[in-house]
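=== RUN LOG ===
request id: a7f3
mode: sequence -> structure
chains: 1
length: 194
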Amino acid sequence: MLHIVDDEDVIRDSLAWLARSRGIEACGYATAQAFLESAGARFAPEGDCVLLDVRMPDMNGVAVFDQLGARGLTARMPVIFLTGHGDVPMAVDSLKRGAFDFVEKPFNDNQLMDRVQEALAASRHAGEAAQVQARLAALSAREREVLEKILAGKMNKVVADELGISMRTVEVHRANIFEKMQVKTAVELAGLLK
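=== RESULT ===
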């Protein structure tokens, strides 16, 4: 989903229409506070991106970006700054601190939507990586040991001998690993963790 944070109704509406013309779901916010109150609660499973105006009356875009960073949301919710008043040092600083892009108004509609689609792809990738890490964290210490041996291509009997456990125990751990990692084969597992 594209989150559009801009105090100008016309800009918000035109950007939402432009996004929808590309098949991107969009939601607009007239204030930074309205956006921050919903940030995190309205994540789309397929990815999120924020178009964030730098100058707004209630809170500037840089302060909003800082709050997203403090919440750990900037990787999962890439930010593209929009400004009619930006300067080079502000743009450089924002990019160094993790902003996805910094675009000056007036902008080229197609180029902006191309960047939005790239940011959405980055968000999806970050979300998938976070899911894999969460699944890995759900493994027990012994399951992680068995996982390492599976990824090294070792057969169950070899894993059992190296870990000093029965082959049946290895089979049980292997089944638990596949279930927790949501894979059906060792090849799929290796592909997920590459």
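=== NOTES ===
The longest strand covers residues 49-53.
Strands lie at 2-5, 26-29, 49-53, 79-83, 101-104.
=== END ===
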